[in-house]
Each structure stands twice: as C-alpha cells, then as structure tokens.
Write a structure and sequence with these properties.
Elements (H helix, E strand, L loop, with lengths): L3 E6 L2 E10 L6 E7 L7 E5 L23 E4 L7 E4 L3 E4 L7 E2 L13 E8 L5 E10 L2 E5 L17 E3 L9 E6 L10 E6 L3 E6 L11 E4 L6 E3 L7 E5 L3 E5 L7 E3 L18 E3 L12 E2 L3 E2 L2 E4 L3 E4 L10 E2 L15 E6 L7 E5 L4 E5 L10 E4 L12 E8 L8 E8 L13 E7 L4 E6 L9 E6 L7 E5 L2 E5 L10 E2 L9 E6 L5 E6 L4 E5 L17
Antiparallel strand pairs: 1-2, 2-3, 3-4, 5-6, 6-7, 7-8, 9-10, 10-11, 11-12, 13-14, 14-15, 15-16, 17-18, 18-19, 19-20, 21-24, 22-23, 24-25, 25-26, 27-28, 28-29, 29-30, 31-32, 32-33, 33-34, 35-36, 36-37, 37-38, 39-40, 40-41
Length: 542
C-alpha cells in the first residue's frame, strides 16, 4: 500500500471512502467504503474501475498516485464521488466505477495532475454538485455541469471546464532568481521554474516592477533558474533530474546544454528537484572571487548526493567536476540526496549543504579547480541537537572574507513536524563554527514559529541578525536571531499566506524575492534596519 486518501460523506458521517495506491506501480490499488463509521469496509473498485475511457495516460489513475491523489464526496449525495489523479474522475454509483471527466492528455482543456477539488455552494445553504473547482499543476479550473455525460475521450460526453487562471497567480514555483540591484536597476529582471509549466523570465522597464506577463523559455518541469548578475547575458534554466541549459545572449536567447556529460551527475542519486546555484556576490576582477567584468560570475554548484562545481559557468559541459564524497547518510535509498546548497555570502570557498536524510555538511577549500580537493565537515553530530528530518534549505556566511576558515554561522530549515522528532523539535536551527569547524555548536532558533515545515531560509546581509523563514504558511522573519528565544513575525503587507519554496537576495543586497507554490513571485526592498511593521500578534494581523 502506498499513499492513502480518505473522504467522508457530509450527508452521512458514517459513510467514508478510502483511496489506496499501489506502492510499486503508483496506480490505483482500490477504493473502499464503509457505511458504519469504519467498523467494516467493502472494496467498491479496483484499479480497473478507474476507467480511462480512451483518454491517454489515464488508465489506473495515471500511475502516479504518490503525487496527485485525492477524494471528495458530494455534500448532499454519498453516492457521488470525485477522484483525483492525473485526471479527475467521477463516480455516481458509490465508488463502483469512475469515469474520466477531464481527459488532460487527450483533447481536454484541463491541465493534468490534480491536487484539489471542491463543490461550490448553491446559494441556499447547500452545495451544487454540478459546480466544481479543480486545482492542478496548471492552476484552477471550473465547471458548471460536472454531472454531465459519461466521460471519456469524446468532449461531447464530458463536462465543460474553463480556466480561471487569467486573473489569479496559481502556478507552483520551485525556485527563481532576480537580477542585480533589483530595486534600483533601470531594467530589472527575474526568472522562475514552475512545476509542469517550464521556466519563465520577465524584464521590466523602470524601477517599479509591477505584475507582468512572463515568457516561457524552457519546457518540461521548470526547476531551478539562475541569472549571471554582472552582464546578465547567461540565464540558466533547469528541468527535472538536473537537466540544465544556459542562454548566452539574454533571457530569451538560444540555449546550450550545460549539464555534465553522461559520466557526470546523471549517474548519482539526485532529487527530481535537483538544486543548482551560482555565486553572485564576488568582488569584481579580484582573483578567486568568481566574478569578472568581462565574463561575469562563473562559479556554480550542483547538488546530487555529492557537490559538483564549475569555475566556467558550466560552459563547456566538461568543466563540471565533483568536489565532495557522498554527503548523505545514505539511509533513504534513492531519496538520499542533497536538497539545497549555498556558498557563503562573503566567500565562494565555503559551501553549506543540507540533505533529505537529515545531514548538514560544510565544505572548505571550494572552487580551486581540482576535483575532490575540498575538506568537508559533517555538522550533523548524530542529530543529537539538529532534528533528524529533511533539511530543506541552508544558508551560511563567514566572519572574515580574508580568513573564511576562522568562523562561520550557518542556518538549516527543517521540514516535517515536531511530532516526527519529539526529542528535537523546531524548524530553524543555527550553527556556529570555529577554526574550520573543528568546534561547532547548534542552537534551536525557532522561537515562537508555528510547528509547520520550513522550506527556505535567508539571512539579510545588511543586518545579519535579521533572518527570514519561508514556510508552508507564508514568510516569517525575526529582527534578532541572536537572542535566546527569537521572536518571529509573519510578514503580511499583501504577501499571501502560502507555501514559500525558495527565496533569493540580489547582488547589491537591495531586494528579497520569494517564490511561492501557487501565488506567484513577490519582491520586497531589503531593509537596512528593523522592519517597521507592527504586528498585533506574532502570526495574524499587521
């Protein structure tokens, strides 16, 4: 048994449906129903009962139920059930058979990979089972005749859905970047990678960027995007499993393959959302800074279960080389990989890594042009203080750019919940290192943060004690992370309270950009002092 979804019938609390997926095939294992509150269950459908009706890639729920799976029972009729997978299916006979009513890979206009579904009110205190919203990788879609037809490949037999995405930002972003001195530049730009919607870019004229139409540059699943900040000619776009391309003539130029050759990171264990980073803060034309006037910034990182680097911006592809051993615990099989990595702000020779199986490691002597030459220090310390949960993001800076080995302060953002590791709760941790991390100390700086996953962390270089945390509930910040119990506030000021997967700070330290899952990209002037927004309490009202 793989993923399991449960939905109750509002009109009869004793009626509950369960949707189970097959752990091996990721197809529908079956649909079960109880009419006595769970005392006894009856299987109503097998995978073959979720019928494709001739729709492409729709048999057995689409065979990726680990990712897109869900159930919803009609509030007024326990016999009507909606099932989500690659498409949306409808049952009118109590879950015995299901008909495909969206046919996303056929001639349907509803984007595939459904994650949410809802019946709409009828205006009289109940619900209208014809009026349905669906949320998928392509955004939000609506039908007013959900009960129409028999489903399947013929559009004449399916409900009519319309897209609602012209007036709402609904695309699921993984990552992104902004151009240098974003707040003051004459033509600021941004890029982002979107689940199932490719990688996009945008340029503005003037110093007041407003909501704009973005241009798709690279297809597939858009993952990491990065912008070379000096000349702004190299724009990097990655898709699933570390496939990386680069333009060399601006955001919409022709692309060159910047992925290492077959002997490169493709042979490693790596994330579907493999991280790629560029060092953007180097002093111009200083040896070892990674940034020159002529070429721009060229030091880059890629994270599999090892750290890969290039001093030449990934051009040519052969310029990539590994500079670490396997940095994971290697306890999760093909899920033991690096989730995120980052250079120290002041020095490209120091790199921090966070892994999906709970490791944090710090590398010294990076970017010397020699494979496997860096020295790595495992800071995890057996997870005696740091929770043994997925490390979703990391950040680090050194105390002295001229002597980066002397001291460093790093941060880790933790996924999961306190209940997963009750002995080590918390979601934002700080580590202080001395002398190449010969000694280091972890501290839980979560303070009053809610018990929700933290997906990203960023430190304001203008005020190192000001730290931002991107969570499932939005953006939080503290003005003083150094105190014993930091006070965190949820940043309101128009920012949606949704999952923030990634954040970026521009070269020049003028702007913080946040990349959300379903509500677009937001930018905010990076302060040089405490944030002057007074909150009524820590989490709700500005």
């Amino acid at each position: 048994l793989g993923r399991l979804e449960i939905a109750d019938a509002p009109s009869n609390p004793d009626t509950i449906y369960a949707l189970g997926s097959d752990a091996v095939s990721s197809g529908v294992l079956g649909v079960w129903r109880t009419d006595d509150g769970g005392n006894t269950w009856v299987q109503r459908a097998t995978g073959s009962g979720v019928q494709s009706g001739g729709c492409s890639n729709a048999a057995n729920g689409g065979s990726q139920m680990w990712y897109d799976s869900g159930l919803l029972v009609d509030p007024g009729n326990p016999e009507i059930v909606l099932l989500s997978g690659v498409d949306m299916w409808r049952s009118t006979n109590g879950g015995t058979t299901f008909q495909d009513i969206t046919c996303g890979y056929g001639n349907g206009n509803v984007h595939v990979d459904h994650h949410a579904r809802a019946f709409l009110p009828n205006g009289s205190g109940g619900y209208d089972n014809n009026k349905v919203l669906s949320g998928s990788d392509g955004g939000v879609f609506y039908t007013a005749n959900a009960q129409f037809g028999t489903g399947g490949s013929s559009s004449a037999n399916r409900p009519t859905f319309i897209s609602l995405n012209q007036t709402i930002g609904s695309i699921e972003l993984y990552s992104g970047d902004i151009t240098a001195n974003f707040a003051t530049a004459a033509n600021p730009g941004a890029s982002a990678g979107a689940q199932d919607n490719g990688s996009e870019w945008v340029r503005w004229t003037g110093t007041d960027p407003a909501p704009a139409q973005w241009t798709v540059r690279n297809g597939g699943d858009g993952i990491y995007t990065r912008i070379e900040p000096i000349n702004e000619l190299r724009w990097y776009y990655s898709s699933q499993n570390g496939a990386l391309v680069v333009t060399q003539t601006g955001p919409n130029g022709g692309t060159t393959n910047a992925t290492p050759s077959a002997s490169g990171w493709g042979g490693d264990t790596l994330s579907f959302v493999m991280p790629v980073e560029i060092y953007r803060y180097g002093e111009l034309d200083v040896a070892g800074s990674g940034c020159t006037t002529a070429v721009g910034c060229t030091y880059m990182l890629g994270g599999t279960n090892r750290v890969w680097e290039t001093l030449e911006g990934g051009i040519p592809r052969s310029s990539w080389y590994p500079n670490s051993p396997n940095l994971t615990k290697n306890t999760l099989g093909n899920r033991s990989f690096i989730n995120q990595l980052a250079h120290a702000t002041k020095s490209p020779t120091v790199v921090i890594v966070g892994t999906n199986d709970g490791n944090v490691q710090l590398g010294y002597g990076m970017n010397q042009g020699v494979a496997d030459s860096a020295t790595w220090v495992n800071l995890t310390d057996g997870n005696t203080v740091l929770p043994n949960r997925p490390v979703m993001d990391v950040a680090v800076d050194v105390g002295d750019a001229l002597n980066p080995a002397a001291s460093a302060i790093g941060y880790a953002a933790l996924g999961g919940f306190d209940q997963n590791t009750p002995g080590t709760p918390g979601h934002i941790y700080q580590v202080t290192c001395q002398n190449n991390c010969a000694t280091f100390t972890w501290r839980d700086v979560s303070g009053n943060l809610p018990n929700i996953p933290a997906n990203s962390v960023a430190v304001n270089p203008n005020i190192p004690n000001q730290v931002f945390a991107g969570t499932d509930w939005g953006l939080y910040y503290t003005d003083d992370v150094s105190v014993p119990n930091p006070v965190w506030y949820r940043f309101e000021n128009g920012l949606p309270r949704v999952m923030i997967w990634d954040m970026a700070i521009d070269r020049g330290f003028t702007t913080l950009a946040v990349f959300t899952r379903s509500r677009g990209v937001w930018a905010w002037p990076l302060p040089s002092g405490p944030i002057d927004i007074i909150f009524q309490d820590g989490f709700e009202t500005p």
